[in-house]
């Protein structure tokens, strides 16, 4: 069987259960599915967050995510993966991102999911603006996210 790969950038919310079903339907070669879902927090550093607005460069973001998905497919024996990233205005409690990795065995699925999330958090071409009661501002990159992503390039 060939690997099932889905990459979407969208404004609409997604249903995690439905996405897992779509990834695994009719597949008997999948023994593990690992999921990571990122959700908009309502507080950051003691400040109440009203919403996040995520922006991207259409075409470039999809191509970059696809490049990293191909890297994951070549590094681990995956039978499928799904990456969904939302853009637009997202309020606390709403989904932001979903990464699903499927494999015959759990270790490959866990490692690939972690690799993909580290990439998305540190390097994916998205820009995030945070709104609070007092201010609106762009979120800066974090050194701990960069460090997490860098560990995958070490020899």
Explain what you see.
- The chain is an alpha+beta fold.
- Helices cover 32% and strands 37% of the residues.
- It has four helices and nine strands, in the order E-H-E-E-E-H-E-E-E-H-E-E-H.
- The protein has helices at residues 16-24, 60-75, 106-122, 143-150, and strands spanning 4-10, 32-39, 43-44, 47-56, 78-86, 88-90, 95-103, 126-132, 136-138.
- The strands form two sheets. Strands 3, 4, 6, 8 and 9 form a five-stranded antiparallel beta sheet that branches. Strands 1-5-7-2 form a four-stranded mixed beta sheet, sandwiched between helices.
- A hairpin with a 2-residue loop joins strand 3 and strand 4 (47-56).
- The longest helix has 17 residues, at 106-122.
- The chain is globular.
Give the structure's gist in a few sentences.
The chain is 32% helix and 37% strand. It has 155 residues and is an alpha+beta fold.
Outline the fold blueprint.
Elements: E1 4-10, H1 16-24, E2 32-39, E3 43-44, E4 47-56, H2 60-75, E5 78-86, E6 88-90, E7 95-103, H3 106-122, E8 126-132, E9 136-138, H4 143-150
Parallel strand pairs: 1-5
Antiparallel strand pairs: 2-7, 3-4, 4-6, 4-8, 5-7, 8-9
Helix pairs in contact: 2-3, 3-4
């Amino acid at each position: 069987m060939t690997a099932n790969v889905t990459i979407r950038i969208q404004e609409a919310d997604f249903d995690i259960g439905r996405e897992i079903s779509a990834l695994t339907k009719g597949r008997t070669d999948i023994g593990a599915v690992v999921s990571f879902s990122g959700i908009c927090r309502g507080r950051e550093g003691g400040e109440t967050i009203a919403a996040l607005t995520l922006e991207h460069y259409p075409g470039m973001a999809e191509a970059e995510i696809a490049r990293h998905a191909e890297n994951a497919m070549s590094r681990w024996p995956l039978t499928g993966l799904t990456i969904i990233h939302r853009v637009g205005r997202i309020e606390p409690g709403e989904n932001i991102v979903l990464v699903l990795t499927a494999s015959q065995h759990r270790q490959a699925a866990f490692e690939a999911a972690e690799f993909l999330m580290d990439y998305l958090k540190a390097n994916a071409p998205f820009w995030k603006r945070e709104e609070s009661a007092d201010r609106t501002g762009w979120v800066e990159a974090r050194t701990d996210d960069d460090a997490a992503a860098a560990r995958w390039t070490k020899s």
